[in-house]
Amino acid sequence: MQIYLPIAEVSVNALLLLSLGLLVGILSGMFGVGGGFMMTPLLFFVGIPPAVAVATQANQIVASSFSALLAHLRRRTVDLRMGTVLLVGGLFGSAVGIVIFNYLKSLGQVDLLVNLCYVVFLGIIGALMFVESLRALRKSRSGAKASRRKHTTIQKLPLKMRFRISGLYISVIPPILVGFFVGVLSAIMGVGGGFIMVPAMIYLLGMPTKVVIGTSLFQIIFVAGFTAILHATTNYTVDVVLALLLLIGGVIGAQFGTIIGSRMKAEQLRILLAGMVLVVCGKLALDLLIRPDELYSVGPAGQS
Amino acid sequence: MRLSALLLLLLAAALPARAEEVVLGLSKDQVRISTDFSGSEILIYGAVKREGPIIEDPPLEVIIAVAGPSRPLTVRRKDRRFGIWVNTAFADVDAAPTFYAVATSGPWADVITDTEDLRHRISIPRAIRAVGSGVDEPGIFTDALIRVREDQGIYQLNESAVELTESTLFETAIEMPANLTEGAYAARIFLTRAGGVVAEYDTTIEVRKVGLERWLFTLSRQQPLIYGLMSLAIAIAAGWGASAGFRMLRNQ
Protein backbone atom coordinates (compact mmCIF):
# COMPACT_ATOMS: atom_id res chain seq x y z
CA MET A 1 0.00 0.00 0.00
CA GLN A 2 1.74 3.15 -1.23
CA ILE A 3 1.15 6.43 0.53
CA TYR A 4 2.31 9.91 -0.44
CA LEU A 5 3.99 11.97 2.29
CA PRO A 6 3.12 15.69 1.95
CA ILE A 7 6.31 17.18 3.46
CA ALA A 8 8.86 14.54 2.46
CA GLU A 9 7.34 14.57 -1.07
CA VAL A 10 7.94 10.89 -1.66
CA SER A 11 5.65 7.91 -1.96
CA VAL A 12 6.45 4.99 0.34
CA ASN A 13 4.94 1.71 1.43
CA ALA A 14 2.72 2.27 4.48
CA LEU A 15 3.15 -1.28 5.80
CA LEU A 16 6.93 -0.92 5.69
CA LEU A 17 6.72 2.24 7.81
CA LEU A 18 4.32 0.56 10.25
CA SER A 19 6.70 -2.35 10.81
CA LEU A 20 9.69 0.00 11.17
CA GLY A 21 7.76 1.84 13.87
CA LEU A 22 6.87 -1.44 15.57
CA LEU A 23 10.49 -2.62 15.64
CA VAL A 24 11.82 0.63 17.07
CA GLY A 25 8.88 0.81 19.52
CA ILE A 26 9.78 -2.60 20.95
CA LEU A 27 13.36 -1.41 21.49
CA SER A 28 12.09 1.75 23.12
CA GLY A 29 9.97 -0.13 25.63
CA MET A 30 12.62 -2.75 26.37
CA PHE A 31 15.62 -0.52 26.86
CA GLY A 32 14.28 2.94 27.61
CA VAL A 33 16.00 4.39 24.58
CA GLY A 34 14.07 6.58 22.18
CA GLY A 35 15.36 4.53 19.28
CA GLY A 36 16.39 7.57 17.26
CA PHE A 37 19.87 6.17 16.68
CA MET A 38 18.30 3.23 14.83
CA MET A 39 15.31 4.97 13.27
CA THR A 40 17.29 7.67 11.48
CA PRO A 41 19.52 5.31 9.42
CA LEU A 42 16.51 3.07 8.69
CA LEU A 43 14.49 6.01 7.33
CA PHE A 44 17.41 7.05 5.11
CA PHE A 45 17.42 3.54 3.76
CA VAL A 46 13.69 3.69 2.89
CA GLY A 47 14.35 6.87 0.89
CA ILE A 48 13.10 9.61 3.20
CA PRO A 49 15.16 12.83 2.80
CA PRO A 50 17.62 13.09 5.75
CA ALA A 51 16.30 16.43 7.04
CA VAL A 52 12.74 15.11 7.18
CA ALA A 53 13.84 11.81 8.74
CA VAL A 54 15.72 13.51 11.60
CA ALA A 55 12.91 15.95 12.40
CA THR A 56 10.04 13.49 12.11
CA GLN A 57 11.55 10.74 14.19
CA ALA A 58 11.83 13.20 17.08
CA ASN A 59 8.05 13.47 16.93
CA GLN A 60 7.64 9.71 16.71
CA ILE A 61 9.96 9.21 19.71
CA VAL A 62 7.62 11.37 21.82
CA ALA A 63 4.76 9.01 21.01
CA SER A 64 6.48 5.69 21.68
CA SER A 65 8.29 7.03 24.76
CA PHE A 66 5.02 8.37 26.18
CA SER A 67 3.36 5.02 25.62
CA ALA A 68 6.22 3.21 27.35
CA LEU A 69 6.45 5.78 30.15
CA LEU A 70 2.79 5.22 31.11
CA ALA A 71 3.49 1.51 31.40
CA HIS A 72 6.49 2.26 33.63
CA LEU A 73 4.56 4.75 35.75
CA ARG A 74 2.01 2.07 36.55
CA ARG A 75 4.85 -0.21 37.57
CA ARG A 76 6.33 2.60 39.72
CA THR A 77 9.70 2.38 38.03
CA VAL A 78 10.07 6.09 37.27
CA ASP A 79 12.07 8.41 39.52
CA LEU A 80 10.31 11.67 38.72
CA ARG A 81 12.53 13.69 41.00
CA MET A 82 15.70 12.41 39.37
CA GLY A 83 14.10 12.84 35.94
CA THR A 84 13.35 16.50 36.62
CA VAL A 85 16.90 17.18 37.81
CA LEU A 86 18.29 15.52 34.66
CA LEU A 87 15.85 17.47 32.51
CA VAL A 88 16.96 20.83 33.92
CA GLY A 89 20.53 20.01 32.92
CA GLY A 90 19.31 18.55 29.61
CA LEU A 91 17.45 21.66 28.44
CA PHE A 92 20.47 23.88 29.17
CA GLY A 93 22.63 21.35 27.38
CA SER A 94 20.50 21.24 24.23
CA ALA A 95 20.43 25.03 24.02
CA VAL A 96 24.25 25.03 24.14
CA GLY A 97 24.32 22.09 21.70
CA ILE A 98 22.26 24.00 19.12
CA VAL A 99 24.74 26.89 19.29
CA ILE A 100 27.63 24.47 18.73
CA PHE A 101 25.73 22.75 15.90
CA ASN A 102 25.15 26.03 14.06
CA TYR A 103 28.78 27.01 14.50
CA LEU A 104 29.93 23.68 12.98
CA LYS A 105 27.42 24.10 10.16
CA SER A 106 29.02 27.42 9.26
CA LEU A 107 32.37 25.62 9.05
CA GLY A 108 30.92 22.90 6.78
CA GLN A 109 31.33 19.13 7.22
CA VAL A 110 28.59 18.86 9.83
CA ASP A 111 27.41 15.52 8.36
CA LEU A 112 30.83 14.02 8.85
CA LEU A 113 31.02 15.27 12.41
CA VAL A 114 27.60 13.81 13.24
CA ASN A 115 28.66 10.47 11.78
CA LEU A 116 31.95 10.48 13.66
CA CYS A 117 30.08 11.39 16.86
CA TYR A 118 27.83 8.38 16.35
CA VAL A 119 30.69 5.99 15.68
CA VAL A 120 32.79 7.17 18.62
CA PHE A 121 30.01 7.34 21.21
CA LEU A 122 28.16 4.22 20.12
CA GLY A 123 31.47 2.37 20.00
CA ILE A 124 32.66 3.41 23.46
CA ILE A 125 29.32 2.95 25.19
CA GLY A 126 28.53 -0.31 23.44
CA ALA A 127 31.91 -1.82 24.25
CA LEU A 128 31.88 -0.71 27.91
CA MET A 129 28.35 -1.97 28.51
CA PHE A 130 29.03 -5.24 26.75
CA VAL A 131 32.11 -6.00 28.85
CA GLU A 132 30.50 -4.90 32.12
CA SER A 133 27.23 -6.78 31.66
CA LEU A 134 29.07 -9.89 30.52
CA ARG A 135 31.05 -9.78 33.77
CA ALA A 136 27.88 -9.21 35.80
CA LEU A 137 26.13 -12.06 34.04
CA ARG A 138 29.01 -14.42 34.77
CA LYS A 139 29.08 -13.32 38.40
CA SER A 140 25.34 -13.87 38.88
CA ARG A 141 25.64 -17.29 37.29
CA SER A 142 28.41 -18.33 39.64
CA GLY A 143 26.08 -17.47 42.52
CA ALA A 144 27.95 -14.49 43.97
CA LYS A 145 25.78 -11.46 44.69
CA ALA A 146 26.58 -8.41 42.60
CA SER A 147 28.48 -5.98 44.77
CA ARG A 148 27.06 -2.56 45.65
CA ARG A 149 28.62 0.23 43.68
CA LYS A 150 31.52 2.02 45.29
CA HIS A 151 30.89 5.36 46.91
CA THR A 152 33.52 7.75 45.64
CA THR A 153 34.09 11.48 45.55
CA ILE A 154 30.58 11.94 44.11
CA GLN A 155 29.31 11.38 47.66
CA LYS A 156 31.27 14.32 49.04
CA LEU A 157 29.67 17.02 46.84
CA PRO A 158 27.23 19.52 48.40
CA LEU A 159 23.49 20.04 47.63
CA LYS A 160 22.50 16.51 48.55
CA MET A 161 19.05 15.29 47.71
CA ARG A 162 17.19 12.09 48.50
CA PHE A 163 15.96 10.09 45.48
CA ARG A 164 13.79 7.52 47.21
CA ILE A 165 12.76 5.49 44.16
CA SER A 166 16.37 5.14 43.04
CA GLY A 167 17.46 4.48 46.63
CA LEU A 168 20.08 7.21 46.43
CA TYR A 169 21.12 10.12 48.62
CA ILE A 170 23.51 12.11 46.44
CA SER A 171 24.38 15.63 45.37
CA VAL A 172 22.32 17.10 42.48
CA ILE A 173 25.48 18.26 40.71
CA PRO A 174 26.38 14.94 39.00
CA PRO A 175 22.84 14.37 37.58
CA ILE A 176 22.68 17.95 36.30
CA LEU A 177 26.07 17.54 34.65
CA VAL A 178 25.01 14.23 33.09
CA GLY A 179 21.79 15.81 31.81
CA PHE A 180 23.69 18.79 30.42
CA PHE A 181 26.23 16.64 28.61
CA VAL A 182 23.54 14.40 27.11
CA GLY A 183 21.59 17.51 26.07
CA VAL A 184 24.59 18.88 24.17
CA LEU A 185 25.19 15.58 22.40
CA SER A 186 21.54 15.00 21.52
CA ALA A 187 21.24 18.45 19.95
CA ILE A 188 24.30 17.75 17.81
CA MET A 189 23.38 14.19 16.91
CA GLY A 190 19.64 14.80 16.54
CA VAL A 191 18.52 12.01 18.89
CA GLY A 192 16.83 11.82 22.29
CA GLY A 193 20.07 10.67 23.86
CA GLY A 194 18.67 7.63 25.68
CA PHE A 195 21.52 5.42 24.57
CA ILE A 196 23.95 7.74 26.36
CA MET A 197 21.63 8.54 29.26
CA VAL A 198 20.90 4.95 30.24
CA PRO A 199 24.53 3.86 30.75
CA ALA A 200 25.36 7.21 32.37
CA MET A 201 22.64 6.70 34.97
CA ILE A 202 23.68 3.11 35.64
CA TYR A 203 27.43 3.58 35.82
CA LEU A 204 27.94 7.21 36.84
CA LEU A 205 24.98 7.80 39.16
CA GLY A 206 24.61 4.22 40.34
CA MET A 207 20.86 3.99 39.76
CA PRO A 208 19.19 0.54 39.63
CA THR A 209 18.61 -0.61 36.01
CA LYS A 210 14.85 -1.08 36.45
CA VAL A 211 14.36 2.56 37.49
CA VAL A 212 16.77 3.88 34.87
CA ILE A 213 14.57 2.96 31.90
CA GLY A 214 11.42 4.74 33.05
CA THR A 215 13.37 7.79 34.20
CA SER A 216 15.24 8.01 30.91
CA LEU A 217 11.94 7.83 28.99
CA PHE A 218 10.54 10.66 31.09
CA GLN A 219 13.49 12.85 30.18
CA ILE A 220 13.51 11.84 26.50
CA ILE A 221 9.89 12.93 25.96
CA PHE A 222 10.72 16.52 26.82
CA VAL A 223 13.98 16.69 24.89
CA ALA A 224 12.46 15.07 21.77
CA GLY A 225 9.33 17.23 21.98
CA PHE A 226 11.49 20.35 22.21
CA THR A 227 13.53 19.21 19.19
CA ALA A 228 10.41 18.42 17.12
CA ILE A 229 8.90 21.88 17.71
CA LEU A 230 12.22 23.50 16.87
CA HIS A 231 12.48 21.59 13.57
CA ALA A 232 8.84 22.28 12.65
CA THR A 233 9.20 26.03 13.15
CA THR A 234 12.65 26.58 11.64
CA ASN A 235 13.14 23.97 8.90
CA TYR A 236 9.51 22.89 8.16
CA THR A 237 10.70 19.30 8.03
CA VAL A 238 8.28 17.46 10.36
CA ASP A 239 6.07 15.20 8.24
CA VAL A 240 2.96 14.47 10.26
CA VAL A 241 1.76 11.66 7.96
CA LEU A 242 5.12 9.90 8.24
CA ALA A 243 5.11 10.46 12.00
CA LEU A 244 1.60 9.03 12.30
CA LEU A 245 2.51 5.84 10.43
CA LEU A 246 5.67 5.37 12.49
CA LEU A 247 3.98 6.05 15.79
CA ILE A 248 1.06 3.68 15.26
CA GLY A 249 3.63 0.90 15.02
CA GLY A 250 5.75 2.57 17.70
CA VAL A 251 3.18 2.85 20.50
CA ILE A 252 2.08 -0.77 20.07
CA GLY A 253 5.68 -1.94 19.93
CA ALA A 254 6.52 0.05 23.06
CA GLN A 255 3.85 -1.80 25.06
CA PHE A 256 5.18 -5.17 23.93
CA GLY A 257 8.72 -4.01 24.63
CA THR A 258 7.86 -3.09 28.21
CA ILE A 259 6.35 -6.54 28.79
CA ILE A 260 9.39 -8.27 27.29
CA GLY A 261 11.73 -6.00 29.30
CA SER A 262 10.01 -6.73 32.62
CA ARG A 263 10.45 -10.48 32.11
CA MET A 264 14.17 -10.30 31.45
CA LYS A 265 17.13 -9.99 33.81
CA ALA A 266 18.80 -6.60 34.01
CA GLU A 267 22.12 -8.05 32.84
CA GLN A 268 20.53 -9.69 29.83
CA LEU A 269 18.81 -6.41 28.92
CA ARG A 270 22.07 -4.53 29.11
CA ILE A 271 23.99 -7.05 27.06
CA LEU A 272 21.31 -6.96 24.34
CA LEU A 273 21.32 -3.17 24.23
CA ALA A 274 25.12 -3.21 24.06
CA GLY A 275 25.02 -5.65 21.15
CA MET A 276 22.51 -3.47 19.29
CA VAL A 277 24.55 -0.32 19.84
CA LEU A 278 27.68 -2.08 18.55
CA VAL A 279 25.91 -3.31 15.39
CA VAL A 280 24.72 0.21 14.49
CA CYS A 281 28.18 1.58 15.26
CA GLY A 282 29.80 -1.02 13.01
CA LYS A 283 27.44 -0.21 10.15
CA LEU A 284 28.16 3.52 10.38
CA ALA A 285 31.91 2.91 10.61
CA LEU A 286 31.80 0.72 7.49
CA ASP A 287 29.98 3.48 5.59
CA LEU A 288 32.85 5.81 6.38
CA LEU A 289 35.59 3.30 5.56
CA ILE A 290 34.32 1.50 2.45
CA ARG A 291 34.50 3.24 -0.91
CA PRO A 292 30.93 4.26 -1.83
CA ASP A 293 29.44 3.04 -5.14
CA GLU A 294 28.55 6.55 -6.19
CA LEU A 295 31.12 9.15 -5.20
CA TYR A 296 28.84 12.04 -6.10
CA SER A 297 25.76 13.15 -4.22
CA VAL A 298 23.12 15.73 -5.10
CA GLY A 299 21.66 18.04 -2.48
CA PRO A 300 19.79 21.33 -2.24
CA ALA A 301 21.97 24.38 -2.81
CA GLY A 302 23.60 26.35 -0.06
CA GLN A 303 24.39 23.56 2.39
CA SER A 304 28.03 22.85 1.92
CA MET B 1 -7.04 8.02 -27.89
CA ARG B 2 -6.67 7.45 -31.63
CA LEU B 3 -10.12 8.91 -32.08
CA SER B 4 -9.29 12.09 -30.18
CA ALA B 5 -6.13 12.45 -32.23
CA LEU B 6 -8.24 12.18 -35.34
CA LEU B 7 -10.61 14.82 -34.01
CA LEU B 8 -7.63 17.07 -33.43
CA LEU B 9 -6.57 16.51 -36.98
CA LEU B 10 -9.98 17.60 -38.22
CA LEU B 11 -9.83 20.61 -35.91
CA ALA B 12 -6.39 21.43 -37.24
CA ALA B 13 -7.69 21.58 -40.79
CA ALA B 14 -10.01 24.41 -39.78
CA LEU B 15 -7.24 26.67 -38.47
CA PRO B 16 -5.05 29.00 -40.53
CA ALA B 17 -1.39 28.03 -40.11
CA ARG B 18 2.21 27.92 -41.24
CA ALA B 19 3.65 25.14 -43.39
CA GLU B 20 3.65 22.52 -40.61
CA GLU B 21 2.21 23.00 -37.16
CA VAL B 22 1.47 20.98 -34.03
CA VAL B 23 -2.01 20.42 -32.69
CA LEU B 24 -1.76 18.82 -29.30
CA GLY B 25 -3.75 16.82 -26.79
CA LEU B 26 -2.87 15.62 -23.29
CA SER B 27 -4.46 12.70 -21.47
CA LYS B 28 -4.53 15.08 -18.50
CA ASP B 29 -3.30 18.64 -18.11
CA GLN B 30 -3.26 18.43 -14.33
CA VAL B 31 -1.55 15.89 -12.08
CA ARG B 32 -3.21 15.78 -8.69
CA ILE B 33 -1.07 14.54 -5.81
CA SER B 34 -3.40 12.93 -3.30
CA THR B 35 -2.62 10.60 -0.37
CA ASP B 36 -2.56 7.48 -2.56
CA PHE B 37 -0.40 9.10 -5.27
CA SER B 38 2.30 6.73 -6.50
CA GLY B 39 3.46 8.25 -9.75
CA SER B 40 1.60 9.12 -12.92
CA GLU B 41 1.68 8.38 -16.60
CA ILE B 42 0.79 11.15 -19.01
CA LEU B 43 -0.16 10.41 -22.56
CA ILE B 44 0.84 13.16 -24.95
CA TYR B 45 -0.68 12.90 -28.40
CA GLY B 46 -1.21 15.23 -31.31
CA ALA B 47 -1.26 15.80 -34.98
CA VAL B 48 0.73 17.75 -37.53
CA LYS B 49 -1.31 20.24 -39.46
CA ARG B 50 0.02 21.22 -42.88
CA GLU B 51 -1.01 23.21 -45.92
CA GLY B 52 0.58 21.25 -48.73
CA PRO B 53 1.23 17.53 -49.35
CA ILE B 54 3.42 15.51 -46.99
CA ILE B 55 7.12 15.94 -47.73
CA GLU B 56 8.65 12.44 -47.55
CA ASP B 57 12.31 13.38 -47.66
CA PRO B 58 13.83 14.43 -45.34
CA PRO B 59 11.43 12.57 -43.01
CA LEU B 60 9.53 14.36 -40.26
CA GLU B 61 10.65 13.62 -36.68
CA VAL B 62 9.07 14.53 -33.34
CA ILE B 63 10.74 15.38 -30.01
CA ILE B 64 8.72 15.75 -26.83
CA ALA B 65 10.36 17.21 -23.70
CA VAL B 66 8.70 17.59 -20.30
CA ALA B 67 10.52 19.60 -17.61
CA GLY B 68 9.63 20.09 -13.97
CA PRO B 69 10.31 23.32 -12.10
CA SER B 70 14.01 24.13 -11.80
CA ARG B 71 15.88 24.38 -8.51
CA PRO B 72 19.46 25.37 -7.66
CA LEU B 73 21.48 22.54 -6.16
CA THR B 74 24.89 21.43 -5.04
CA VAL B 75 26.74 18.35 -6.27
CA ARG B 76 29.40 16.98 -3.93
CA ARG B 77 32.19 14.50 -4.42
CA LYS B 78 33.59 12.21 -1.78
CA ASP B 79 37.32 11.62 -1.43
CA ARG B 80 39.37 9.51 0.89
CA ARG B 81 40.93 11.55 3.69
CA PHE B 82 42.66 9.95 6.69
CA GLY B 83 41.16 6.60 5.74
CA ILE B 84 37.52 7.70 5.66
CA TRP B 85 35.29 8.94 2.85
CA VAL B 86 34.55 12.64 3.20
CA ASN B 87 32.75 15.20 1.03
CA THR B 88 35.51 17.35 -0.42
CA ALA B 89 34.97 19.06 -3.77
CA PHE B 90 31.57 20.46 -4.72
CA ALA B 91 29.95 22.41 -7.54
CA ASP B 92 26.85 24.59 -7.51
CA VAL B 93 24.36 24.11 -10.32
CA ASP B 94 22.34 27.29 -10.85
CA ALA B 95 19.20 25.64 -12.14
CA ALA B 96 18.40 22.00 -12.76
CA PRO B 97 14.91 20.69 -13.47
CA THR B 98 13.44 18.51 -10.73
CA PHE B 99 12.13 16.24 -13.48
CA TYR B 100 13.12 15.97 -17.14
CA ALA B 101 11.99 13.53 -19.78
CA VAL B 102 12.78 13.61 -23.48
CA ALA B 103 11.12 11.27 -25.97
CA THR B 104 12.02 11.16 -29.65
CA SER B 105 10.62 9.43 -32.72
CA GLY B 106 14.03 8.12 -33.77
CA PRO B 107 17.68 7.79 -32.68
CA TRP B 108 18.94 11.04 -31.14
CA ALA B 109 21.57 11.72 -33.85
CA ASP B 110 18.91 11.49 -36.59
CA VAL B 111 16.28 13.76 -35.07
CA ILE B 112 18.26 16.87 -34.20
CA THR B 113 21.61 18.52 -34.89
CA ASP B 114 23.89 19.76 -32.16
CA THR B 115 23.38 23.40 -33.11
CA GLU B 116 19.62 23.13 -32.91
CA ASP B 117 19.93 21.32 -29.58
CA LEU B 118 22.14 24.13 -28.32
CA ARG B 119 19.59 26.73 -29.41
CA HIS B 120 16.53 25.03 -27.93
CA ARG B 121 18.21 23.32 -24.95
CA ILE B 122 16.49 19.98 -25.46
CA SER B 123 18.95 17.23 -24.49
CA ILE B 124 19.45 16.52 -20.79
CA PRO B 125 22.95 18.11 -20.46
CA ARG B 126 21.74 21.24 -22.29
CA ALA B 127 18.62 21.57 -20.15
CA ILE B 128 20.79 21.93 -17.04
CA ARG B 129 22.54 25.21 -16.58
CA ALA B 130 25.78 24.40 -14.81
CA VAL B 131 28.00 27.06 -13.43
CA GLY B 132 30.79 25.60 -11.38
CA SER B 133 32.22 27.27 -8.35
CA GLY B 134 35.11 26.03 -6.28
CA VAL B 135 36.21 23.44 -8.85
CA ASP B 136 38.06 23.42 -12.14
CA GLU B 137 35.82 21.10 -14.11
CA PRO B 138 32.09 21.70 -13.59
CA GLY B 139 31.45 19.33 -16.52
CA ILE B 140 32.34 16.32 -14.38
CA PHE B 141 29.82 17.40 -11.77
CA THR B 142 27.07 17.97 -14.35
CA ASP B 143 27.72 14.49 -15.71
CA ALA B 144 27.52 13.09 -12.18
CA LEU B 145 24.25 14.93 -11.56
CA ILE B 146 22.73 13.48 -14.72
CA ARG B 147 23.99 9.99 -13.87
CA VAL B 148 22.59 10.09 -10.33
CA ARG B 149 19.22 11.39 -11.51
CA GLU B 150 18.98 9.00 -14.46
CA ASP B 151 19.51 6.15 -11.99
CA GLN B 152 16.61 7.52 -9.94
CA GLY B 153 14.40 7.76 -13.05
CA ILE B 154 14.01 11.52 -12.64
CA TYR B 155 15.86 12.24 -15.88
CA GLN B 156 14.86 10.12 -18.85
CA LEU B 157 15.94 9.99 -22.47
CA ASN B 158 13.60 7.69 -24.40
CA GLU B 159 14.81 7.36 -27.97
CA SER B 160 12.28 6.12 -30.51
CA ALA B 161 9.54 6.29 -27.87
CA VAL B 162 7.34 8.65 -29.86
CA GLU B 163 5.10 6.74 -32.22
CA LEU B 164 4.67 8.65 -35.46
CA THR B 165 2.03 7.49 -37.95
CA GLU B 166 1.96 8.68 -41.57
CA SER B 167 4.16 11.68 -40.61
CA THR B 168 0.99 13.15 -39.12
CA LEU B 169 -0.23 11.52 -35.90
CA PHE B 170 2.12 11.11 -32.95
CA GLU B 171 1.83 9.92 -29.38
CA THR B 172 4.02 9.02 -26.42
CA ALA B 173 3.63 8.18 -22.74
CA ILE B 174 5.70 10.02 -20.15
CA GLU B 175 6.25 8.15 -16.90
CA MET B 176 6.34 10.49 -13.90
CA PRO B 177 7.76 9.19 -10.60
CA ALA B 178 6.07 9.50 -7.21
CA ASN B 179 8.50 12.07 -5.81
CA LEU B 180 7.27 14.96 -7.95
CA THR B 181 7.86 18.57 -7.04
CA GLU B 182 4.80 20.81 -7.22
CA GLY B 183 4.60 23.40 -9.96
CA ALA B 184 4.06 24.02 -13.64
CA TYR B 185 5.67 21.38 -15.85
CA ALA B 186 6.62 22.71 -19.26
CA ALA B 187 5.89 20.34 -22.15
CA ARG B 188 7.61 21.22 -25.44
CA ILE B 189 6.99 19.50 -28.74
CA PHE B 190 9.42 19.98 -31.62
CA LEU B 191 8.95 18.93 -35.23
CA THR B 192 12.25 18.46 -37.05
CA ARG B 193 13.41 17.68 -40.57
CA ALA B 194 17.03 16.75 -41.30
CA GLY B 195 17.93 17.75 -37.74
CA GLY B 196 16.47 21.25 -37.99
CA VAL B 197 13.49 22.41 -35.96
CA VAL B 198 10.59 23.32 -38.25
CA ALA B 199 7.88 23.88 -35.64
CA GLU B 200 7.60 24.19 -31.87
CA TYR B 201 4.65 23.99 -29.52
CA ASP B 202 4.61 24.75 -25.77
CA THR B 203 2.10 23.88 -23.12
CA THR B 204 2.08 23.30 -19.35
CA ILE B 205 0.99 20.48 -17.13
CA GLU B 206 0.01 21.55 -13.63
CA VAL B 207 1.26 19.32 -10.81
CA ARG B 208 -0.21 20.11 -7.40
CA LYS B 209 -1.11 18.56 -4.09
CA VAL B 210 -4.82 18.27 -3.35
CA GLY B 211 -7.04 17.59 -0.34
CA LEU B 212 -5.36 16.55 2.90
CA GLU B 213 -1.88 16.77 1.34
CA ARG B 214 -2.49 20.38 0.29
CA TRP B 215 -3.92 21.31 3.70
CA LEU B 216 -1.05 19.80 5.71
CA PHE B 217 1.59 21.29 3.45
CA THR B 218 0.08 24.78 3.67
CA LEU B 219 -0.34 24.54 7.44
CA SER B 220 3.28 23.46 7.93
CA ARG B 221 4.52 26.52 6.01
CA GLN B 222 2.10 29.17 7.22
CA GLN B 223 1.45 28.12 10.82
CA PRO B 224 4.56 26.11 11.71
CA LEU B 225 4.08 26.41 15.48
CA ILE B 226 0.48 25.19 15.35
CA TYR B 227 1.55 22.42 12.98
CA GLY B 228 4.36 21.37 15.35
CA LEU B 229 2.10 21.42 18.40
CA MET B 230 -0.53 19.46 16.48
CA SER B 231 2.07 16.79 15.60
CA LEU B 232 3.09 16.58 19.26
CA ALA B 233 -0.54 16.37 20.41
CA ILE B 234 -1.14 13.51 17.98
CA ALA B 235 2.00 11.78 19.28
CA ILE B 236 0.97 12.11 22.95
CA ALA B 237 -2.61 11.05 22.22
CA ALA B 238 -1.44 7.99 20.29
CA GLY B 239 0.98 7.05 23.07
CA TRP B 240 -1.72 7.37 25.70
CA GLY B 241 -4.28 5.55 23.53
CA ALA B 242 -2.03 2.55 23.00
CA SER B 243 -1.19 2.39 26.70
CA ALA B 244 -4.86 2.56 27.73
CA GLY B 245 -5.82 0.01 25.11
CA PHE B 246 -3.23 -2.47 26.29
CA ARG B 247 -4.30 -2.06 29.92
CA MET B 248 -7.88 -2.82 28.97
CA LEU B 249 -6.75 -5.91 27.10
CA ARG B 250 -4.78 -7.16 30.08
CA ASN B 251 -7.59 -6.52 32.55
CA GLN B 252 -10.03 -8.63 30.60
Which secondary structure elements does this structure contain, and how are they paired or packed?
The complex is a heterodimer of chains A (304) and B (252).
Chain A: E1 2-5, E2 10-13, H1 14-31, H2 36-46, H3 50-74, H4 80-107, H5 110-141, E3 160-163, E4 168-171, H6 173-189, H7 194-204, H8 209-234, H9 240-262, H10 266-289, E5 296-300
Antiparallel strand pairs in A: 1-2, 3-4
Helix pairs in contact in A: 1-3, 1-9, 2-3, 3-8, 3-9, 4-6, 4-8, 5-10, 6-7, 7-8
Chain B: H1 2-13, E1 20-26, E2 30-33, E3 40-50, E4 60-67, E5 70-81, E6 84-97, E7 100-104, H2 108-111, H3 114-120, H4 124-127, E8 129-130, H5 138-151, E9 155-158, E10 163-165, E11 169-176, E12 183-193, E13 196-209, H6 211-222, H7 224-251
Parallel strand pairs in B: 2-13, 7-9
Antiparallel strand pairs in B: 1-3, 3-11, 4-7, 4-12, 5-6, 6-8, 10-11, 12-13
Helix pairs in contact in B: 6-7
Description:
The complex is a heterodimer of chains A (304) and B (252). With 304 residues, chain A is mostly helical. Chain A has helices at residues 14-31, 36-46, 50-74, 80-107, 110-141, 173-189, 194-204, 209-234, 240-262, 266-289, and strands at 2-5, 10-13, 160-163, 168-171, 296-300. Chain A has one domain. Chain A contains 10 helices and 5 strands. In chain A, helix 4 (80-107) crosses helix 8. With 252 residues, chain B is of the alpha+beta class. Chain B folds into 2 domains: 2-209, Immunoglobulin-like, CATH 2.60.40; 215-251. Chain B contains 7 helices and 13 strands. Chain B has helices at residues 2-13, 108-111, 114-120, 124-127, 138-151, 211-222, 224-251; strands at residues 20-26, 30-33, 40-50, 60-67, 70-81, 84-97, 100-104, 129-130, 155-158, 163-165, 169-176, 183-193, 196-209. In chain B, the strands form 3 sheets. A 6-stranded mixed beta sheet of chain B has the order 2-13-12-4-7-9. In chain B, strands 1-3-11-10 form a 4-stranded antiparallel beta sheet, with helices on one face. Chain B has a 3-stranded antiparallel beta sheet with strand order 5-6-8. In chain B, helix 6 crosses helix 7. The relative contact order of chain B is 0.20. The mean pLDDT of chain B is 78. At the A-B interface, strand 1, helix 3, helix 8, helix 9 and helix 10 of A face strand 5, strand 6, helix 5, helix 6 and helix 7 of B.
